Amino acid sequence: MNKYIGILTSGGDTPGLNAAIRAIGKAAIREYGMTVIGFRDGFRGLMENRTMPLDRKSLSGILTIGGTILGTSRHKPHKMPVGGKIMDMTDVIVENYHNRHLDCLVCLGGGGTMKNAWHLAKHGLNVITLPKTIDNDVAGTEITFGFDTALGIAVDAIDRLHSTAHSHHRIIVVEIMGHRAGWLALGAGVAGGADVILIPEIPYDVNIVAESILDRSRKGSPFSIVAVAEGAISREAMDRITELKKKAEKTDDKEEREKLRQEMKEIDKNSTGKTLELAKQLEEMTKLESRVTILGHLQRGGTPSAADRLLATRLGTACADYIKQGKFGVMVAARDNETVPVPLEEVVGKRKMVPSDHPWIRSARLVGTCLGD
Ligand code: F6P
User: Fold this and answer.
1) Which domain holds residue 69?
2) What interhelical angle do 111-122 and 90-99 show, nearest 10?
3) Active-site residue among 135, 137, 195, 308?
4) Most buried by CB count within 10 Å: which residue of 131, 142, 203, 242?
């Protein structure tokens, strides 16, 4: 019997999304004779029943295009802004799914999307997800599509910053995206030969960073590139958070626990994204002029790299196979050279951070890069 499938993209856009949509759609239509539609703007469009046909024509010519032809949003089914209020729209979404006689909903997204998809799976929808994000922080998969392209953009930026930092004898602090994980900053820092790399997984001591820059100066290199992840945090702030966490674990007083939690949240919020402040501190401590470059959304734009096109196509075509086999409630993950269906409950609520024994960390240390610790 002909199967009907819906596709949506949710969360921050990522190069490779269109390659994935194309792969799912083409394989589903050509190989399995399925009918495919796209929902616009993520779960918002699913709730509002806004669709576009995904047929041979609309799936053609999109492989190399950045962004997502479907549009995206960060709206959640159970917390949707409607008429000035935040509403649980799960029932409307479930109804729309059934009214369209869908056999499966494919959600392309990162950690937040996995949660939302799992929420809908628990409400009886046949759901499959594909892991996309430039942050590479989705649990259960070795890699997410979008990461390689963003990595290339960040490396290119560091390469360009090198010559100007060198010419002016300056410190250039370059802020790299990645949300709470350090994959992008670490990868770009190592590949771009940054002198200092600061990531959330390794809280930094600004004195150690300044000393490493001064040491380079003394040895004849009075310039430095500092690659800092947007989620990087100082040792001081981290120690304070750990202290509060311990206190919260010990107390039986609910109110006190909540107060401590709020305090932790506040410190956390105020301790990341401190790139401008860090550059100023380093300038004062080293007496070297400093400049800041925040790469921001540049890292998410443009055409996907060959590696991302390959990954998105591989995961997308495997997704069509799983739909045919009736394997639902799973994320299509990349492991070694295989694709594996990983149950969504194993993915949801987890963030894949850079492990302390990761080879990139060891290599960075061995070539003399300061990691701030
Ligand atoms: O998750 C992808 C990402 O680009 C993160 O690296 C970044 O923290 C966030 O999205 C930015 O979100 P927005 O596009 O909503 O500003």
Assistant:
1) 4-145+304-335
2) 70
3) 135
4) 131
341 lies in a domain?
Answer: no
Tokens at 158, concatenated: 């560091």
Cα 171–chain centre separation:
27
Alpha carbons 322 and 310: distance in angstroms, whole number: 18
pLDDT digits (tens, 9 = 90+) for 164-181: 999 999 999 999 999 999
**Residue 1 confidence (pLDDT) above 80:** no
Does residue 196 share a domain with residue 135? Answer: no
Share of the chain above pLDDT 70, in %: 100
User: Could you tell me if the CB of 110 is within 6 A of ligand 1?
Assistant: yes
Which atom in ligand 1 lies closest to the alpha carbon of residue 178?
6
Residue type, 274: K
Tell whether 35 is covered by a domain: yes
109 lines ligand 1 (CB under 6 A): no
Strands (E), the chain: 4-9, 35-39, 51-53, 80-82, 85-87, 104-109, 127-131, 171-176, 196-198, 224-229, 290-294, 330-335, 338-343
170-200 burial code (b ≥16 CB/10 A, e <16)? bbbbbbbbbbbbbbbbbbbbbbbebbbbbbb
Q: What is the pLDDT of residues 291-309, one digit of tens each?
A: 999 999 999 999 999 999 9
Q: Give the Cβ contact number of residue 156 at 10 Å.
A: 15
- State the CATH number of the domain containing residue 103: 3.40.50.450
Examine the domain organization and report whether 20 and 155 are in the same domain: no
Whether residue 344 is contained in a domain is answered as: no
Torsion of Cα atoms, 101 then 107 then 112 then 115, to 10°? 50
CB distance 134 to ligand 1 below 6 Å: yes
309 in the same domain as 279: no
